[in-house]
Here is the input.
Amino acid sequence: MISDRETLAMRKALRLAVRGRGNTFPNPMVGAVILAHDGTEAGDGFHRKCGAPHAEAVAISSAGDRVLGGTLVVTLEPCCHQGRTGPCTDRIINAGISRVVVAMEDPDPRVCGRGVEQLRDAGLEVEVGLMSGEAARLNRVYLHYLRTGRSWVTLKMALSLDGRIAAADGTSRWISCEESRKTVHRKRASVGAVMTGAGTVRKDDPELTVRLSALPPSGQPARIILTRSGDLGGSENVIRAPGRVILAYPDSAGPAMKKFRDSRKVELWEMPHDETGGVRLLPLLERTASEGIGEILCEAGPGLSTALLLQDLADSVMVFSAPMLLGGEGRPAFGELGIRSMEKALRLENVTCRRSGSDFLTEGEFVHGTD
Ligand SMILES: NC(=O)c1ccc[n+]([C@@H]2O[C@H](COP(=O)([O-])OP(=O)(O)OC[C@H]3O[C@@H](n4cnc5c(N)ncnc54)[C@H](OP(=O)(O)O)[C@@H]3O)[C@@H](O)[C@H]2O)c1
Here is the structure.
């Protein structure tokens, strides 16, 4: 039986967990609350960043003596293996906690039910499943990485009401309103990298940085630029702006990238090529994940966005619809996707829709065939 206080505590733990967003990958975001023996709140904590103490340890420390005989309410199954920090299960057992309420099991193969088992074997009462849906949504990037080994990709675009991403002459500034652009800066601040194609760099010369407040360069998301041709000068805003810059190109384009070889600003990622002569996107997204980039915000034109969709590598969208029409002569958001009938439409789930200044923001996740 779950008490009302435990339900409230789980809600709070989920809110706390979010405070680690953008900093915990490849670890999950986790929040925890300790309820003392009498049911009152005694402490809380969250996992601040990868390598920092886990939420359970922070919460136990903050509760002091009141932890004895208390309940730990936590958004993910406690770990039971030695990682950068010790196993949380030992910490929980040694602290004298008598009951643990867990939102969901951790599918990490090193845990995967064994954390719960260890707690039960030590005589603690354990409940699993309270608000598991919310907990899974919170950690969608982490769960996706465990399942697929690749970064989560969110396609962001600003569209006119008739689905155009630019006018006929290729200009797209500004389709979305100022408030929507601020929302994009907040989103950039929460992802590991912003990705675009060289076409957008040449046409719009964007910085793709976070410009909400003064951030140190290390606080900026990495920028990943894809090019087949290498047709970039090196002085574009996206390259000059503070933060890490990665230029990804197919192995066949090596000679065109010579001019960047001595650049201290640009990291060159030579990747296997696909049948179009471009970078194979799956190995690219596996490499980004292995380098600690959990989520990528793709702010590209139709070239790159279409390639991601065709290969089933786009995971969610963030679409701003602006109250304007650009007509049939405007540039469509995507190229051909091979959809010939309604049953082939790419569908979204977990969809939310809200006002964003004078625009509408729709967010949702793609329903993947297989993962
Ligand atoms: N409204 C919006 O939200 C929005 C957002 C972004 C852009 N835009 C508009 O989109 C238009 C640009 O469209 P676009 O299709 O050219 O943009 P894009 O998709 O950003 O860039 C296409 C280019 O990216 C490179 N590329 C794409 N896939 C690649 C792969 N797999 N491997 C290696 N390189 C790859 C190629 O560069 P190379 O040619 O160098 O080989 C390709 O020509 C502009 O008008 C811009 O204003 C609108």
About this structure: The longest helix spans residues 4-17. The CA atoms of residues 233 and 325 lie 34 Å apart. The chain has two domains: 4-141, 150-366.
